[in-house]
What does this fold into?
Amino acid sequence: MKRFLILIEIILITLGGMAVAYFDALYKDNIEQISYQEQSRQMAIQETEELEKAIDDLNSEIEELEKKEEISQYLLWKRRLEELQDRLS
Amino acid sequence: MEEKTGRTSGSAFLKASLIITVFILVFCGYTAFSCWQNNKEILSEVQQAKMICEEAMEERDAKELELKQREKYRDELLDSINEIEDVKKEFFALAKETEDRILNGELDLKIAYLTFDDGPYHRSNQFLDVLDEYDVPATFFYLMKCSETGYAEEDAAYDAIYRRVINSGHTLANHTATHKLGKEGVYSSIDRFVSEVIRNREFIYDRYGYKTEIMRFPGGSDTSSKIPDIIPRLNELGYGYVDWNIACGDGGQLQPANVYRDNVLNNTKDKKVIVVLMHDYSLNTLEALPDIIEGLDKQGYIFLPLFPASSMCRH
It folds into this structure.
């Protein structure tokens, strides 16, 4: 009987210890997850900021190019060139 | 007696064991429960962190996509601009070749560069209408007329004129920012003159993305004794300057349209390349313009916009 009780106690202590260890590991894992997610988020935010800056720079470049395109109509100059060529031929 | 003592110690052990077992059970249960509770909370935090992270990543991905799309658009624009630049280069190269051959007597053609000074003006659009009607390219030596230089009311209208001049394929050229003559005017010092040219150049470039490469001295290149010293400075800025060899006469006292017309058409004799000075403000000049164009056409002139490599553009 005594041995049986001691055995039960040992089993219970072992099971209790295992449960605590399991939950502790789970807890640590989740904490790591949060930290990992936070790091990823920070990286994504930083990358987004860099992309936004790149888009802004690109937009300024595009604005300049659009001005240039607007003032340099292809068809107009093509026609003028052909007309001048005709006059010379 | 011994048997009683043995039974008592057995029962005490049993009680102690039960107490320890209950204690272990309670302790383990409590610990496991609190760990479970903690994990439950932390798990929801993990989910929240994941969501926030995913949102940030989605935003980043969207920006990445936007950047790629803008890059594609930029590349398309560049291709289109390069194509246009190639045609323009080809046109001006041919114009240069034509001018050289005319001046060498190899071609029985003549070139007329119509130029309009001091604008934009309210009447400029009417001049542009006439040029459009005859499909004649010209050169406009314009000033910096905007709110900054005291043209607040006219700014929007003049803005449209600058755009129209450029978009119609005329040459827009620099005539200094203010054209002020006199003691405090553009010729008061070399630096003042150069700053006037730079100011107007930047105004046109910043607003319209158009790079001016030709300028005209207000009053012409013999107006001031400082001009020989100004020219090297203008060359450094990449400018050539153009005078005129025919003036329609609208810069002085008001004359009837036929006088302006005759001033041009009767002074072309022996001139293979002419640069005609006009102003796009006078109603009489506007009236004379169709006759001037038709008359020059009859005399065998072709109309070109001024370009830096032209022999009329001096450095």
